[in-house]
Amino acid sequence: MLPQISRRGLLRSGAAAGLLSVTGLPLRAQSRGGTLKLGLAGANTSDSWDGRTHSDTYMIVTAHGAVFDCLTEIAANGELVGELATSWESSPDAKTWTFDLRQGVTFHNGAAFTADDVIASLKLHLDEDAKSAARPIVAPITEMKKLGDHQVQFVLEAGNADFPFLMSDYHLLMYPHENVEEAIAQGIGTGLYKVESFDPGVRTLLSRVDGHYKDGKAGWFDQIEVIAINDGSARMTALMTSQVDAVNNVEFQVEPLLKANPQLALNEVTGNQHYTFPMLTDLSPMDNVTVRRALKHAVRREELVEKILQGHGAVANDHPIGPANQYYHADLAQNDYDPDKSKALLKEAGLDNLKIDLSVSEAAFSGAVDAGLLYQASAKDCGIDINVVQEPADGYWSNVWIKKPWCASYWSGRVTEDWMFTLGYETGAAWNDTHWDDQRFQTLLKEARAELDSDKRREMYHEMQALCSSEGATAIPMYANFVDGYNTKLGHPEVVGNVFDLDSNRICERWWMA
């Protein structure tokens, strides 16, 4: 049997990048008490406790990072640890996985957590009407078997060496099987914090659960108040005037003001986050790979890193695998800004010039509007006329993303290559935001997922990155560091997670009031 898979060596670069930076502050002892006030971007009036719909920071921090639990969790140092599962093991071919579940856990309504809840919660993602982004993770499970109240077995259609990592996905929240609809409506989970009030797109108030299984290890605040502040300027003002204790998506133009204030600090980590411009391949002219290549050579990547990220990131190469991933293809030939090549590609596509709309909003990422305008300026010399369409922030992810032919977007990245490719690039995946369907890529995706030889996996994932860069439908010009701002009255661990922002979305559990 294969043991629990460790990624200490695998993710060493990612863990090192996750060390707390720029504060220079001494660490302080953890203490219980106080209210954490968060001002977060990524909120919508359509938000709910249905994990299948979660896509942005506000609900991920609130649900996955406070109210609910998953089977596994990625620790701040990159290790995979148990959350509602205590251990797991697989058959030699990685097709059958057996998970032992934590005993003595109760939901906020008093129901005991058992294997029945795991099976019911995962099956929610197979409902086609729900259009869950995690469906590609759950669909390959051909059988879910209850071996006991606290043991469950999964049989996969093919081997997957990364399966335990996938069980930490923030969509895969655990609900009580006898009251799933009520739990989704009211926010009933097994997390450290229970819901006191929830006004979607406005405010959420949570209170600490007494006698929780994580007592003494996590959950140091008495209460959590999460305020929706999608506007970047308003979010920075709220932090600087102490209306909130921490914010995500720091606007870099105010960075000097934050650094000059001794009561404020920045937390910056390098992960796999990348800012993107996905193109729908089932619409003209994005269905033409030559046109897509022309657009990839029409953007000044270094300029975006300098002006949009203020240097807090790096140039990317039109594929979603980041520098913290194990199989990152650092030697892949770079898609550079090249007006002559872009023009030649347009001519090859039968076009003398190209006029096209690009939908943008600050909801996509901080600076997305300016990024679109910079893209517009650089594309002019390539014979491409980009019309930048500024879309409303509210409803951007439901009305624009995967709806408009070309738009701005972002991905936080994922810990493993298969996880990232499965969610965003597998044929039919709900979050395949270009509808790109390349036969060779899809074949490699399945083969690499089941391959246990690391050298062979590296070759496959390198080829997949090359295919995305050359044939794919997403212009990915830059990797962006996670940069959060916080009041120095907060204490924090020595190592901060870099899978997502705000300590991998676990600030409610891992930080404390000093």
Tell me about this structure.
The protein is α+β, with helices and mostly antiparallel strands and 514 residues long. Helix content is 28%, strand content 21%. The chain has 18 helices and 21 strands. The strands form 6 sheets. The protein has a 7-stranded mixed β-sheet with strand order 8-9-10-1-11-19-12, sandwiched between helices. A 4-stranded antiparallel β-sheet has the order 4-5-7-6, covered by helices on one side. Strand 6 and strand 7 form a beta hairpin. Helix 15 runs antiparallel to helix 16.
Summary keywords:
single chain, 514 residues, alpha+beta, seven-stranded mixed beta sheet, four-stranded antiparallel beta sheet, 28% helix, globular, disordered N terminus
Low-confidence stretches: 1-27
Report the β-strand fraction as a percent range: 15-25%
Helix/strand/pairing class, anyone?
alpha+beta
Q: Count of helical segments?
A: 18
Mean pLDDT: 93
Provide the helix percentage.
25-40%
Described by strand count, sense and barrel closure, the largest sheet is: 7 strands, mixed
Distance between the termini: 45 Å
- Total beta strand runs: 21
Query: What oligomeric arrangement do these chains adopt?
Result: single chain
Query: What general form does the structure show?
Result: globular
Secondary structure: elements and pairs:
Layout: H1 12-17, E1 35-40, H2 57-67, E2 72-74, E3 80-82, E4 85-90, E5 96-101, H3 115-123, H4 135-138, E6 141-148, E7 151-156, H5 163-166, H6 180-186, E8 193-199, E9 203-208, E10 223-228, H7 232-240, E11 246-247, H8 255-260, E12 264-269, E13 274-278, H9 289-296, H10 301-307, E14 313-315, H11 339-348, E15 354-360, H12 368-380, E16 384-390, H13 396-399, E17 409-411, H14 417-425, H15 439-450, H16 454-471, E18 474-480, E19 482-487, E20 490-491, H17 501-505, H18 507-510, E21 512-513
Parallel strand pairs: 1-10, 1-11, 15-16
Antiparallel strand pairs: 2-3, 4-5, 5-7, 6-7, 8-9, 9-10, 11-19, 12-19, 13-17, 13-18, 14-18, 20-21
